[in-house]
Amino acid sequence: MRAILVGLGALGQGLLGHLIRQGPELLDTYGLRVKIVAALDTSGAVVQPSGIDPEALLKGKRAPGGLSNLQPWFRPGRRALEIIHTVDADLVVEVTPTNIVDGEPAMSHIRGALKTRRHVVTANKGPVVLANSYLASLAEEQGVALRFSGTVGGGTPVLDLARKSLRGDRVLQIQGIVNGTTNFILTRMAEGLDFDEALEEAKKLGYAEANPSYDVEGTDAAIKLTILAHWTMGSKIHVTDVAVRGIAGVTRSDIERAKAKGMVVKLIARFDGQKASVGPELIPTTDPLNVPGPLNAVTYVTDNVGPITLIGKGAGGRETSGALLRDIIDIHLRSR
Fold this sequence. Notes:
Blueprint: E1 2-6, H1 10-30, E2 35-41, E3 44-52, H2 54-62, E4 74-76, H3 80-86, E5 91-94, H4 106-115, E6 119-122, H5 125-142, E7 146-147, H6 158-164, E8 171-177, H7 180-190, H8 195-204, H9 213-216, H10 219-233, E9 243-244, H11 252-260, E10 263-271, E11 276-284, E12 295-302, E13 306-313, H12 317-335
């Protein structure tokens, strides 16, 4: 499978690492050989129609000078859309930074790839939350696949469970912890830290960005809940339909009062088919959603089975890039 890799940050490099480590296994198990024919970052593109060795690409990217080390294949200043339209490929992997305002530049990259009949795999939440119905329709019209399992749950197959493993059943409700940063902060507060202390620790450990408002205010959780509602229940809700309250107002006193009642405070995302919300809630310590640290947990309440809870790591370059690989394998198997 010939692939164009758009974005060489943590996720792009993580995917290259998987291809390096698992290349023989992918070929033996699935008959899949991923050939990187182009890779791009903000400096330009590396283009080699016969394929670029993933190990050489990763080494070049990480060395001083970046992609310019990869001569004679480096094309300085080349833009992703130009490469998508001119380089022959089966698949575009889009892992540029998320923009939830208008989804760009990923929106244009994904739309351009689908229009030129390339499959698309992405972990970029912007285009998925803003234009999922349009992009899904475009993919179907062009006879290609659009996969984005890494947008929710990192490497944990939250979306795949609902769509693939619950065939013949119907999801009636969604509830869960879908942001690892806030869950880590609340966990540490329950262990004795103040909010600011827990937030600083989250930053030091890489769980929170320098500007953590996206997580702390509940925006990230609202976006993921919207994607879950679209994918698992066919809902048409917009992220602005989600009633959102973050955790900045949670105090140690709130945590202690909850503890005295045998409860914990968690940032819970909920959708019942009508109303969508994200906010701090008290849940029993025995609740399956009471997971520690940066873990995510999502419960689907289904028509036939009732509640089903999936728990796993919700972030991390290796974990989320593993979801990219899972989507690539899925497309390959469906295309044979």
